[in-house]
Structure formats: C-alpha cells, structure tokens
Specification:
alpha+beta, Alpha-Beta Plaits, six-stranded mixed β-sheet, 19 helices, nucleotide-binding, antiviral defense, Rev_trsase/Diguanyl_cyclase, Cas10-Cmr2_palm2
C-alpha cells in the first residue's frame, strides 16, 4: 500500500449559494454542498485502507466544500473516480426523491440540468513522512491549475428561465396556470405559497434547494425563518406566545411573518399570495398585538442584518508562512491543531447566534454566514470576533504573528432582494479586508441599504490600541435610546444631522476635510447641545452636573478618537449615521 495526500472539492460554491430569493434558498444551498462534502468524506473512508482526515474537523456540521486527507491505497485514480461518481449520483438521488415526494414527474431536461451542475475536482499526490509541507504546497498549486481550466457543458434550452438562478429553463412552476414559454413544465400542487409563489418557476437544481426539506429530515432546518421573521425575532420572543398563535391560526397554512406588518394586510397582497382571510378583519386581529407591543415599547422592525465573517490570511496560515520553523517540518501538526481549533469555533458560533439573536446559515470554521436581528447585531459581532481562535497560542507560531478575522455586514429591509443583500455583505467583507495597506486587516464594514435608496457605508478596525470601536458604537446607541421607554433619551441624534449638514458640502472628492481641529471643536459643541440628561431622583444639582459633564466628555473623547482613526470624515459620519439608524429600530 502506498500513502497519498488526497484533496477533494465540491462546487460551484458562490453561485450555487448566492442564487436565492428566500432565506431558505440560501440555507439550503449551503446545506446541500455541506452534505455532499460530508458524505464524500464518509465514502472515502470506506474505499481506502486507511484515512486520516486533516481538514476540516469531523465535528463541524457545516462542512466546507473541500477536504484534505492522508490515505493509503493501491490505485488513487480509481478512488478519485469512484468518489466523483458517488457524489454525482448522491445529488441526483436527492433531486429525484424530492420530485417523487412532491408527486411530480421529471420533465425532459431534468437529468441534464442535474448532471451538469456539480463541479468536482480531486488530486492525489504520493508522499512519505517528512514531505508534507512540500506536497501540501504542490497540492494547492495543482488545484489552482485544475480550476483555471474551466470545463463547460454546451446544451441548448429555449424558453422561460428559472426565477431563482436565471440560467436554466423552468421545469416546475407554482400557481394556477402556466406562464409564457413554459410548455412541458410540471405544476407543483398542494404546497403553501410561502414555498413557491404564483407564477414562480424553478429549474431542477433550484427545486432541490427550495424543497430540500422534503428529502432531509435529520439536521436540516425545514422551517428556516424568513427575512421578515429575522427582523422581528426579538419582538416576537417578548410577546405572549398564545396571542401570536391566535393570530397565526387566523391564517392557517397561509401564514407568513410578513403578515405582522399592516402594509401587507391588503386585498391585493392577499390575492397575490393566495391568502383566503379577510384583510379588514386581519387588521383588527393584528391591532391586538401591536397595541400590546406599543405599551411595552416593542417595535416591529422591518430591517435585519446579514453577516459574513472570515479569517484573515488563512491561505498564508495554512501554507505555514507564519510558522517559526522555516522548513515547515511541523506543518502537518499545525494543520491538525488548527483544524481542531476551527472546529471548536464553528460549534461556538452556533451557540452565539441563536434565536432571538439570529440564525446561522453556515459556520465552516474560519468563515461564518448568518442572519442577525438588528437589536443584537453589535454584541454578536463583538462576540464572534472575540472567540475567533488565536493561532499565536501554538508553540510553533512566529513571535508577533496573530490571527484575526474581518467581518462584512449588510443591513437591509426584509423585502430587499436577497441576492442584492448577499452581494453587499460580501462586498463589505472585502472592504474590511482591504482597510489596511500593511495587510493587517482585522476590521469590520457595515452597509445600510435604506428603502429610500440611500446607502451608508463605514469601515473600521475592531480596535485601535485601547479603543474598542464596537463598544463605542454600542455606547453611542445606548445614549440615543430612551431609558425604560421614557420619552427623553440622554442625547438627541440632532448632533449627527447637524454634522452631516455642515460638513457634507465641505469635504473633498475623497470624503476628507483638511481642518480637522475645526471639526473636533464643532462635534464637541454639538454633542454638548444635544444632551438632554435629566436629574435622577434624590440626585443633587452638583452630582447631576458632574455626571452630565463626565458623560459628555467621555463620549466626545471617544468619538473624536474614532474620527482621527477613520480613513475619511465621510467614513466617520457614516458610522454615526449607522448608529442612528440602528437606534431608531429601523422602522
């Protein structure tokens, strides 16, 4: 038996996951790829004499789309081919089972769409102990070369394209009648409109994402929350469940969390979504909930956040660039230890992001994608960064080298197209990683997409020496909030509006303002004027003045420090605008 270093990848990743109209699509795409990677690992162990998985950690539920293992076998080419065919057949079985359970037939072109989706690659290199570092580098080089040769299958499809991917022909549709250019498609019956709306058409691939719950039972979240539900998670968790259940029962199987917003309780909306309830009566039923919510200071937010977090310089860490030993003789040990740490972190992420804080799409170790309720965005961001594993704890890491992670966040209305939200979240993650010319990264970037079309973007490092950016942002938001739902918050957000009015016209094309001392003087003046703090019961005038002056001085000092660290004045003002937006509950 010979020993080989074996690498296997399952794709496509970004396009398959990103092609989503519903949060369920996004989750299902990730789950399917993770499942195929997981069963490939399981199958490999049955095909070879010995299999030692190096990456990823076997305990991670959301397996990445690639894995590396040390195997012993006689014919690696046979193993790779069998594994390739096994994964391809597994995906076909999943799709066929979904069609069967929906009581549908597979139309012409079904098999072609399924078989042409997956992009599977494998590489096997023979090696002996002591050669791991060089073979790992060679493995990565070969993978890059293989992926550069783009294989494609040419086939013609004439007709209406899928509502989800826009690439393949519609083979299945929802609604009472066929739409234009859908001739041989199968109608999906007896399914709630929240799964497929009237007139929506799906290809075979996107059907497997939308209805993956018909095949998977274990570990699959069959009732993944919608973006509307994520926006309302905190509020709904604090309301009487019996009150909510009564409202849901009024709609029966047609219920969707969008019905918590009165703007959707219209005849037009009900007809479009096949809801049989009376809109006027629905408004009265909803009023029972909203009245109680208002009395307790709860808001029905229409905005949520999509968060991407990714370890910085992971390629360099995996290559051994940051190891003390120049020969990288302990690279395999490092990979085993690294995999274990990332596995622990992946599990921790799911502990951090739970209802009502949000829900994880996937947590693969060094990368995270999650929907977050806006009320918990900042604490979740802070906790995810603080728990990211410290690779410098390993004895063989170069002195001075530290692991870090960058985060991209998009705050959007629940009706904003999900593909656009995901694109912005990825874009902000990229901007966070591009913040430092010295490639230190370790930053976060937030984009706020308002329904009006206005966009705020801000990028900052997590920390500047002793200054914690998230803590300052959270402190500012708390000062703008009304304590105990009283009418007067400690500070008015008027100072943010004034700063925007005064300095937007003074900034140059790069968003900078040369006279920073003047800006610093003005922000101090405006914060002082916006203070609305009142005396506490039993507090003397002297104590009140001292507390007020200290609060003003503290927040002014911290905001000025962030302004000095900001890449531009425009970037800093966007940070303030983001704080105001989050505080207002985004209604």
């Amino acid at each position: 038996m010979s020993q080989f270093l074996f690498l296997f990848t399952v794709g496509p990743v970004q396009s398959f996951i990103a092609q989503a109209r519903k949060s369920q699509d996004l989750y299902s795409g990730s789950f399917l790829l993770s499942h195929l990677s997981d069963i490939a690992i399981y199958k490999l162990k049955t095909l070879v004499s010995s299999c030692d998985l190096i990456f990823p950690n076997k305990e991670i539920a959301s397996k990445p789309n690639r894995f590396i293992a040390k195997i012993e076998c006689e014919d690696p080419e046979k193993i790779g081919s069998e594994l390739h065919n096994f994964v391809q057949n597994e995906y076909r079985k999943i799709c066929e089972d979904i069609v069967t359970k929906l009581n549908l037939n597979a139309p012409e072109g079904f098999n072609q769409q399924i078989d042409y989706l997956l992009d599977l690659h494998w590489i096997a290199l023979d090696f002996e102990e002591g050669e791991y570092a060089s073979k790992f580098s060679e493995l990565e080089s070969y993978l890059g070369a293989v992926k550069n040769i783009r294989r494609f299958h040419q086939f013609q499809e004439a007709g209406r394209k899928c509502s989800l991917c826009g690439e393949r022909n519609v083979l299945f549709y929802g609604g009472a009648r066929k739409r234009a250019h859908v001739h041989e498609a199968e109608r999906i019956n007896n399914v709630s409109n929240k799964f497929i709306s009237d007139g929506e058409g799906l290809c075979a691939v996107c059907l497997s994402k939308r209805f993956a719950g018909r095949h998977f039972k274990k570990k699959y979240h069959s009732d993944y929350p919608s973006t509307a539900e994520i926006a309302l998670m905190d509020t709904l968790s604090k309301l009487d469940s019996s009150l909510l259940n009564d409202y849901k029962s009024f709609f029966g199987k047609d219920f969707d969390e969008q019905l918590y917003f009165k703007d959707n309780l219209t005849k037009k909306y009900f007809e479009k979504n096949g809801i049989k309830a009376d809109p006027e009566i629905s408004l009265k039923e909803l009023a029972k909930i909203t009245n109680i919510a208002e009395q307790t200071g709860l808001k029905f937010s229409t905005y949520y956040a999509l968060l991407c977090l990714d370890g910085d310089n992971m390629g360099k860490w995996l290559s051994g660039k940051f190891l003390e030993d120049k020969d990288k003789s302990n690279l395999m040990d490092f990979h085993f230890d690294l995999t274990k740490k990332l596995g622990t972190y992946a599990i921790k992420v799911k502990d951090i992001v739970q209802n009502p804080k949000g829900i994880v799409v996937y947590s693969g170790g060094d990368d995270v994608l999650a929907f977050i309720n806006l009320d918990y965005l900042l604490p979740v961001m802070k906790e995810l960064r603080e728990h990211f594993p410290a690779f410098e704890e390993f004895s063989y890491t170069k002195q001075g080298e530290k692991s870090s992670a960058s985060c991209g966040v998009c705050i959007a209305h629940y009706k904003t197209p999900l593909q656009e939200v995901l694109t912005w979240a990825r874009k902000m993650e990229h901007e966070a990683k591009s913040i430092d010319d010295n490639a230190k990264k370790d930053a976060f970037a937030i984009a706020v997409l308002k329904r009006s079309g206005e966009i705020h973007k801000t990028v900052f490092n997590w920390k500047y020496e002793t200054l914690d950016t998230i803590e300052v942002l959270a402190e500012l938001i708390s000062l703008l909030k009304s304590p105990n739902n009283s009418e007067t918050p400690p500070f008015s957000d008027s100072f943010v509006n004034k700063l925007n009015e005064e300095f937007n016209l003074l900034m140059n094309d790069e968003g900078n303002y040369s006279e920073f001392p003047l800006f610093e003087t003005e922000i101090k003046r405006l914060i002082n004027r916006s203070c609305m703090m009142v005396k506490n019961t039993g507090e003397s005038e002297t104590e009140y003045r001292s507390r007020k002056d200290q609060t003003i001085a503290d927040i002014t000092e911290k905001l000025c420090a962030l302004a000095r660290e900001s890449r531009s004045l425009e970037n800093f003002l966007s940070l303030l605008n983001t704080a105001v937006f989050i505080e207002r509950g985004s209604n």
